C-alpha cells in the first residue's frame, strides 16, 4: 500500500497585547512643575499638552494620560513613582484596563 502524506495545519492565534490606561492622580504636595516635567520626560508630552494635563489633574483630581501595552504602562507608572519618591513627592498613577 502506498503511504500518503498527511498535511497538518496548525493555526496559531496571536493574542492581542493587553492594554492598560494610565491615569495621574492629584495630591496636595507634588509641584505643578514636577508634574509637567514627568509628563514631558516619561510620557513624551510637549509643554503645552503637559501643562493642560497638569491643570486637569489639579482641577478634576485625576487625568487620563494614555493607553499603552501592559508592560509599557506598568514601566511608565513605576518610573513616575520612582522619580517622585526620589524628589520627595507622593505623586501616583493608577492603571485601568483599556475600555473597548
Give a written overview of the molecule:
The longest helix is centred in the last third of the chain and has 17 residues, at 70-86. This protein has one domain: Ribosomal Protein L30, Chain: A (2-Layer Sandwich). The chain has a three-stranded antiparallel sheet with strand order 2-1-3. With 100 residues, the protein is α+β, with helices and mostly antiparallel strands. The model has no long low-confidence stretch (mean pLDDT 91). The chain has helices at 32-41, 47-60, 70-86; strands at 19-25, 62-69, 92-97. The protein has three helices and three strands.
CATH top level is Alpha Beta
Low-confidence stretches at least 5 residues in length (pLDDT < 50)?
A: none
User: What value does the average pLDDT take?
Assistant: 91
Order of helices and strands: EHHEHE
Rough shape? Answer: elongated
Count the strands? 3
CATH T-level fold name:
Ribosomal Protein L30, Chain: A
Which value, in Å, is the CA radius of gyration?
21 Å
Structural class comes to: alpha+beta
How many structurally independent domains? Answer: 1
Number of helices, counting only DSSP H or I runs of 4 residues or more: 3
Estimate percent helicity.
Answer: 40-55%
CATH superfamily, by name, is Ribosomal protein L7/L12, C-terminal domain/Adaptor protein ClpS
Biggest β-sheet description: 3 strands, antiparallel
Determine the N-to-C terminus distance.
Answer: 56 Å
What is the architecture at the second tier of CATH? 2-Layer Sandwich
Concise description?
The protein has about 100 residues and is an alpha+beta fold. The chain contains three helices and three strands, in the order βααβαβ. It has helices at about 30-40, 45-60, 70-85; strands at about 20-25, 60-70, 90-95.
Amino acid at each position: 500500500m502506498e503511504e500518503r502524506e498527511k498535511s497538518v495545519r496548525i493555526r496559531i492565534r496571536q493574542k492581542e497585547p493587553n492594554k492598560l490606561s494610565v491615569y495621574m492622580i492629584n495630591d496636595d504636595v507634588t509641584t505643578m512643575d514636577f508634574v509637567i516635567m514627568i509628563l514631558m520626560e516619561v510620557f513624551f508630552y510637549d509643554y503645552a499638552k503637559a501643562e493642560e494635563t497638569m491643570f486637569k489633574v489639579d482641577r478634576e483630581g485625576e487625568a487620563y494620560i494614555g493607553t499603552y501595552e501592559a508592560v509599557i504602562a506598568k514601566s511608565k507608572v513605576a518610573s513616575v513613582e520612582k522619580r517622585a519618591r526620589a524628589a520627595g513627592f507622593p505623586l501616583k498613577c493608577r492603571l485601568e484596563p483599556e475600555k473597548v
